[in-house]
C-alpha cells in the first residue's frame, strides 16, 4: 500500500490491492512499523530481569487476547479462512523458543522489555 500526503490537506489517499471483491466502508487505521520506532531503552539490573519478564509476559497475553478477538470477529464478519493470519500470529507468540530467546536476551543484555522484543524480532 502506498500513501500520498499533501501537507496542506488533512487527509491522505491510500492505494492498494483489495483482498476480496467488494467495497469496505469504515474507519481506517494506519499503523507504522514499530521496529522503526525507537522505544525507550534503559538498562536494568539482574534484579530487574524478573520484573521485565513479567511485563513482557503480560504484554504477550494482552496481544493474544486481542488476536483471539480478531479471529472471532473475522470468522463471523468475513470468512473463517481469513482468520488464519491471526492464528499464525498467536502461534508465533506461544512458541516456547521465542520466550527462551526473550529470557536469554534479558539476562544477557540487561535492557528493558521493549528493547528486548525489538532485538529478538529483528534477528528472526
Structural class comes to: mainly alpha
What sequence of helices (H) and strands (E) makes up the elements?
EEHHHH
Overall number of strands: 2
Unreliable stretches: 1-9
The CATH fourth-level homologous superfamily: PtsI, HPr-binding domain
CATH class: Mainly Alpha
CATH architecture: Orthogonal Bundle
Oligomeric state of this protein = single chain
Report strand order across the widest sheet.
1-2
Tertiary shape: globular
CATH topology descriptor: Enzyme I, Chain A, domain 2
Task: Describe, in short, the structure shown.
The chain contains 4 helices and 2 strands. With 124 residues, it is mainly alpha-helical.
Walk me through this protein's architecture.
This protein has a two-stranded antiparallel sheet. The chain has a single domain, classed as PtsI, HPr-binding domain (Enzyme I, Chain A, domain 2, Orthogonal Bundle). The chain has 124 residues and is mainly alpha-helical. The chain contains four helices and two strands; from the N terminus they run ββαααα.
Could you list some keywords that capture this structure?
single chain; 124 residues; mainly alpha; Enzyme I, Chain A, domain 2; 4 helices; 52% helix; disordered N terminus
Helix and strand layout, with pairings?
Blueprint: E1 2-5, E2 12-15, H1 49-77, H2 84-94, H3 96-109, H4 113-123
Antiparallel strand pairs: 1-2
Amino acid at each position: 500500500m502506498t500513501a500520498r500526503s499533501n501537507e496542506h490537506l488533512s487527509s491522505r489517499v491510500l492505494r492498494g490491492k483489495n483482498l476480496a471483491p467488494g467495497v469496505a466502508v469504515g474507519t481506517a487505521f494506519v499503523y507504522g512499523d514499530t521496529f522503526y520506532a525507537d522505544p525507550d531503552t534503559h538498562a536494568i539490573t539482574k534484579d530487574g530481569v524478573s520484573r521485565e519478564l513479567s511485563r513482557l509476559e503480560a504484554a504477550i497475553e494482552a496481544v493474544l487476547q486481542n488476536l483471539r478477538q480478531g479471529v472471532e470477529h473475522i470468522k463471523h464478519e468475513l470468512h473463517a479462512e481469513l482468520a488464519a493470519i491471526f492464528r499464525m500470529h498467536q502461534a508465533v507468540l506461544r512458541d516456547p523458543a521465542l520466550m527462551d530467546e526473550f529470557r536469554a536476551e534479558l539476562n544477557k543484555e540487561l535492557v528493558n522489555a521493549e528493547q528486548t522484543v525489538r532485538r529478538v524480532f529483528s534477528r528472526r
